[in-house]
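Consider the tokenized backbone below.
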């Protein structure tokens, strides 16, 4: 009903600590950039590539999750650090 007002609520996370509500914006999930989140953060894909490079990630498909924190810092979780995930091309390099 209020989707037109809230937009894509799935790209926004809320964390409650004590009585403080913290707004987190997910900009990459499962290796895919969330364009609506990038727009809300006033970021381009080039900006995102720069952030990934600063965290040692070469491509959006190599990131499991990237979150823009309230103070402007980015939390980057590479796919290689997720248990059971060997990177974006793990299924192509596996041998039977």
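A designed sequence for it:
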């Amino acid at each position: 009903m209020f989707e037109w007002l809230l937009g894509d609520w799935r790209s926004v996370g809320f964390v409650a600590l004590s009585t403080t509500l913290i707004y987190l914006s997910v900009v990459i999930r499962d290796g895919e950039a969330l364009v609506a989140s990038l727009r809300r953060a006033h970021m381009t894909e080039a900006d995102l590539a720069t952030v990934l490079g600063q965290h040692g990630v070469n491509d959006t498909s190599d990131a499991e999750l990237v979150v823009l924190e309230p103070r402007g810092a980015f939390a980057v979780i590479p796919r290689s650090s997720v248990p059971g995930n060997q990177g974006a091309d793990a299924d192509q390099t596996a041998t039977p």
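Residues 1-9, 87-96 have pLDDT under 50 and may be disordered.
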